[in-house]
Write a structure and sequence with these properties.
alpha/beta, 4-stranded antiparallel β-sheet, binds adenosine-5'-triphosphate, 6-stranded mixed β-sheet, binds magnesium ion, 24% strand
Length: 260
């Protein structure tokens, strides 16, 4: 187990801090409660790249949803950048989500009828950013993830990897401190998955924290820290030297028809 750190960088506030974080679901008829997550205590510094692993049903998504302020704990405390989110109103939680967090899902969750630009504009609509600035920022963010030529393609007109990059641009466009990703490469082939990991690593080097859930050790090796869950408990928490996704990508045999 990792020692819970004295903060490494001269006492900065952790990005995430939990104490005894617990989420139990009420039982169905006559059953016991489901202990989806039990007593998780950890601190993650800003700019970390963390993988959460564990078997199906071990509590990974439950943990991610709590960290993402999409769900509330049954017990325990959670601070996001020093702010205790447990007692906040739904409005304030939504505000924190939109300002501090970006979400990426296995199935992309894009609006099917909207083009890439419009999908990426949406989080700014909710924040009241004016249309023209929205367009500019959405286009610039899409360009930054390599989709500058695809602004007006709808999701069905994009490959899986391109759709995931639109989703990542959408997650990034409000300048989050932390990207939360649940199986972000789960629907992608190996090469495309590596491209997404290379993008995450580049974002991470620019200071954005990444917390991703994955079943796949091949994906987890790109993180600098690995959390392991089992039966709702955090059973291991270890730092590691991350593999370099761009290098892994370069080492793959040449692909057919891949745009770089
Ligand atoms: N809304 C819910 N109501 C009741 N039980 C739930 C609910 N959501 C999750 N659970 C239970 O909590 C436990 C943890 O679920 P969770 O979705 O966090 O697992 P996971 O590690 O993400 O699994 P997977 O790898 O399959 O996505 C499981 O036993 C699950 O059945
Ligand atoms: Mg899950």
């Amino acid at each position: 187990m990792r020692d819970t750190p004295a903060l490494p960088d001269g006492g900065g506030t952790p990005l995430i801090e939990t104490e005894g974080l617990t989420r139990h679901y009420p039982a169905g008829e006559g059953g016991a409660v489901v202990a989806a997550l039990s007593d998780v205590t950890l601190a993650i510094p800003p700019g970390a790249m963390v993988a959460a692993m564990g078997p199906s049903g071990s509590g990974k998504s439950t943990f991610l949803n709590l960290i993402g302020c999409l769900d509330r704990p049954t017990r325990g405390a959670y601070r996001l950048m020093g702010e205790a989110v447990g007692q906040l109103s739904p409005d304030r939680l939504a505000e924190i989500r939109s300002r501090r967090l970006g979400f990426v899902f296995q199935s992309f969750n894009l609006l099917p009828r909207a083009d890439a630009l419009h999908n990426v504009e949406l989080p700014m609509v909710y924040r009241g950013v004016r249309r023209r600035l929205r367009r500019e920022r959405a286009a610039a963010t899409l360009a930054a993830v390599g989709l500058g030529e695809r602004l007006h393609h709808r999701p069905s007109q994009l490959s899986g990897g391109q759709q995931q990059r639109v989703a990542i641009a959408r997650a990034l466009v409000n300048g989050p401190d932390l990207i939360l990703a649940d199986e972000p490469t789960g629907a992608l082939d190996t090469r495309t998955g590596l491209e997404i990991m290379a993008l995450f690593q580049a974002l991470n080097r620019s200071g954005v924290g990444v917390l991703m859930v994955t079943h796949d050790p091949e994906v987890a090796r790109f993180a600098s820290r690995v959390l392991r869950f089992r039966d709702g408990r955090l059973v291991a928490d270890e730092d590691q030297a991350p593999a370099d996704a761009a290098a892994a990508l370069a080492a793959l045999p040449a692909a057919q028809g891949m745009a770089a």
